[in-house]
Each structure stands twice: as C-alpha cells, then as structure tokens.
C-alpha cells in the first residue's frame, strides 16, 4: 500500500510536533534532578505572556494544517501548505542559530534542532511535490481533453 503525499505531510507534521515537545521537555529535565533551569539574563521580571501566546501559535498552526490537509485538496491550500512549511523551516533555522548562541551550549538540544530542521526540509519537499502534483494533474487532464 503506497502512502500518498497527504499522509506523508500529516505524519511529518506529527513527528515535527513531537520533536518540538521533546525540545521543550529536554529544557525542563534538569528540574527532575534538582537543578535550576533559570538563567539570570533571559527575561528578568518582564511578563512572558507574549512568549506563551507565540508558543501556542507555533504549536497550533501545524495541528490546524494537519486537519486541513485531511479535508482540503485544493490547489490554493496546497500552496498555503508549502508556504507554511517553508516558514517553519526558516524559523527552525533561526532557532537553531539562537540555540548555538546560548552559553553553555546544550549539544543535545542542538542535535535535536538539527534533526527537526531536517524533518522540516523533508516536509518542504513533500509539500512541494504535493503542490506540483495538483498542477501536473491539471496539465495532464488538459492534454487528454485536446
């Protein structure tokens, strides 16, 4: 049984979300060993509510994309899907660079972020193929009609 592009996209988004959750969990693991995870210069006493809203959005968008991929097959949605995957890849790259600037560097987090970045690139590729499949299907149908 062959796996189609839509199934691949949903699976890749799921793996990506699990990786993001694990990235967060890795950052909290020292708490379970009675170690401090706070750094003195990150946020101070400022409100971090805006960060929480950004995190919610960063998690919610892939979930919405997975649901939409189940129910939408339009060319417009395929283009949106591809665009969102590219945006997430760019954001992951910036996050990877930001993690490299944190001292001391948590190399296990860097390894995970590289893995997530590669999953994102694979998601870009599959989304691009799905987008082109629709365009190629239209061209094939037009040639068959002539």
Main attributes of the structure:
146 residues, mainly alpha, 0% strand
Textual characterization of the structure:
There is one protein chain. By secondary structure, this protein is mainly α. The protein is built from 4 helices and no strands. α1 packs antiparallel against α2, α1 runs antiparallel to α4 and α3 runs antiparallel to α4. The two termini are 33 Å apart. About 3% of the residues have low confidence.
Oligomer, anyone? Answer: single chain
Helix content: over 70%
| Binned strand content | under 5%
**Rg, please?**
19 Å
Q: How many strand units?
A: 0
Mean pLDDT, as a whole number?
Answer: 85
Question: What is the gist of this entry?
Answer:
By secondary structure, this protein is an all-alpha fold. Helix content is 77%, strand content 0%.
SSE layout:
Elements: H1 5-28, H2 49-71, H3 75-101, H4 107-145
Helix pairs in contact: 1-2, 1-4, 3-4
């Amino acid at each position: 049984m062959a796996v189609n592009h839509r199934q691949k996209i949903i699976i890749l988004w799921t793996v990506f979300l699990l990786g993001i959750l694990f990235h967060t969990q890795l950052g909290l693991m020292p708490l379970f060993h009675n170690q401090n995870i706070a750094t003195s210069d990150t946020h101070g006493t400022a409100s971090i509510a805006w960060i929480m809203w950004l995190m919610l959005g960063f998690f919610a968008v892939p979930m919405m994309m997975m649901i939409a991929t189940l129910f939408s097959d339009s060319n417009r949605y395929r283009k949106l899907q591809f665009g969102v995957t590219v945006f997430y890849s760019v954001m992951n790259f910036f996050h990877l660079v930001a993690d490299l600037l944190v001292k001391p560097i948590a190399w296990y987090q860097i390894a995970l972020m590289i893995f997530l970045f590669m999953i994102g690139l694979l998601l870009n590729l599959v989304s691009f193929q799905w987008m082109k499949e629709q365009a190629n299907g239209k061209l094939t149908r037009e040639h068959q009609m002539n």
